[in-house]
UniProtKB/TrEMBL annotation:
Family classification: Belongs to the HyuE racemase family.
Coiled-coil segments: none
InterPro entries listed in its UniProt record: Asp/Glu/hydantoin_racemase (IPR015942), Hydantoin_racemase-like (IPR052186), Iso_Racemase_Enz_sf (IPR053714)
GO molecular function: amino-acid racemase activity
Organism: Dichomitus squalens
Protein name: Asp/Glu/hydantoin racemase
Transmembrane segments: none
Pfam families according to UniProt: Asp_Glu_race
UniProt xrefs under Gene3D superfamilies: 3.40.50.12500
Length: 238
């Protein structure tokens, strides 16, 4: 039997905060195995340090895309097998990459929402700034043609912090903000909670503390993206 080829996934952080990218690596280390290679790319310094709204989404995509173009040329040595856009939004970079490659491309938003829906319980999203409450709700509607997916989606609660502040503020302040948002989400009926920001990876305990003893499943959006892409690549190789 031929030896199975490794799957290489490029995790793209389209903002310019290298600390955010570096913070993901130890959190995702337990997903690593000999047949999975994770690579990382941070947006250039011209990209905004944090994606906080539609404008910064577009700017981050415009500045990050040129650095990815050389990897999209067919047969480029060292090019990854799949691309994960690690920004929790309906991010334009996903569509831009799909225009230029037949390899799997997914954003952590769509990966985690699909994951949560498959778990079969009402789900909601805990995210960063207030802007994302409406934007992510609209994103779910675009994905499924329904604002609440027949009652499966109960909405979005924000912490009031930017993605950058999740790393820069005191840990106790960040945890309190996430816990409070999770508590409100449970109050709305969610029994699955998506951590709606790449910067929240590894912060499951704060979500659990806000759930008040309720049995709630927690979805890490970045991990959802990695496992989804690994499966897609292997399925295409069959």
């Amino acid at each position: 039997m031929a030896r199975e080829l490794p799957v290489s996934i490029l995790i793209v952080n389209p903002n310019s905060s290298k600390s955010m990218t570096e913070g993901l690596q130890p959190i995702l280390a337990d997903l690593m195995h000999p047949q999975l290679v994770l690579q990382y790319l941070t947006g250039p310094e011209q990209s905004p340090p944090s994606v906080n709204d539609f404008t910064t989404s577009v700017i981050s995509a415009a500045h990050t895309f040129p650095s990815l173009l050389p990897l999209l040329v067919p047969e480029t040595p060292g090019a990854p097998d799949a691309y994960l856009v690690a920004c929790f939004s309906d991010h334009p970079l996903v569509g831009m990459l799909r225009e230029h490659t037949h390899k799997p491309v997914i954003g952590i938003f769509e990966a985690s929402v699909t994951h949560a829906l498959a778990l079969g319980q009402p789900f909601g999203i805990v995210t960063t700034g207030k802007y994302w409450e409406r934007a992510l709700t609209d994103g779910v509607q675009r994905m499924f043609g329904s604002g609440n997916i027949g009652g499966a989606f109960v909405g979005v609660e924000s912490t009031g912090m930017t993605a950058l502040e999740l790393h820069d503020k005191q840990a106790e302040v960040v945890a309190a903000g996430i816990s409070a948002a999770a508590s409100r989400m449970v109050g709305r009926g969610a029994r699955t909670i998506i951590m709606g920001c790449a910067g929240m990876s590894g912060m499951e305990r704060a979500v659990q503390e806000g759930c008040g003893g309720e049995r709630v499943q927690i979805v890490d959006a970045v991990r959802s993206g990695i496992t989804t892409l690994e499966g897609l690549v292997r399925a295409q190789r069959m």
